[in-house]
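Final report, Chapter 2: Outcomes

The project's central promise was a pipeline that accepts a single protein chain and returns its three-dimensional structure in a standardized token representation, suitable for archiving and comparison. That pipeline is now operational. To close this chapter, we reproduce one record exactly as it appears in the project archive, with the input sequence first and the structure output second.
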Amino acid sequence: MARGPRYRVPFRRRREGKTNYYRRRELLKSGELRLVFRPTLSNAIAQFVKAELPGDRILVSAVSRELVKNFGWKASCGNLPAAYLTGLLAGLKARKAGIEKAILDAGIKKPNPGCRIYAGLKGVLDAGVNVPHDPECLPSEERIRGEHIASYWKTLSQAERERRFTHYLKAGLSPEELPKHFEEVKQAILKAYS
């Protein structure tokens, strides 16, 4: 008599390391909308997602490339200030769509305090969307404005500056001016959605 294997193969997304089904179930049981924030090396994505039986439905989405296209952002789209601005943009779009409340879905990785996920969360909170959080996890205002990048720029030699900040220099932005540029783009976003 033939007998099959005694082991059980996990779901495909679990095998690929993309989904923690236990955490997802706990988030879905709450019945709240989820704020899904996914930073990559060169980008940041913020989405307000509603879980439905056929699959998740994205209600509002913002990508850090929109900062370059619509608001004149010249710095990297993958840094902490860009994550904050992406969260702010997503939060303002959500408010316009009537979304008042959500819960954070940080994904498979455990976020560290002050990371880009929490910078995006800070942007959503500043837009006026209520998301439960621990205030100690949010990055400081200096890091959100990019002052840590400006101070790092000052410590480098000229050759290292050109090698590490090529994207900034090509765009015509000195990293020393990043906090000022951040405020300009932030005001442009607030003006567009006021």
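Archive annotation: Residues 150 and 176 are 4 Å apart (CA to CA).
This record, like all others produced under the grant, will remain available to the consortium after the project formally closes.
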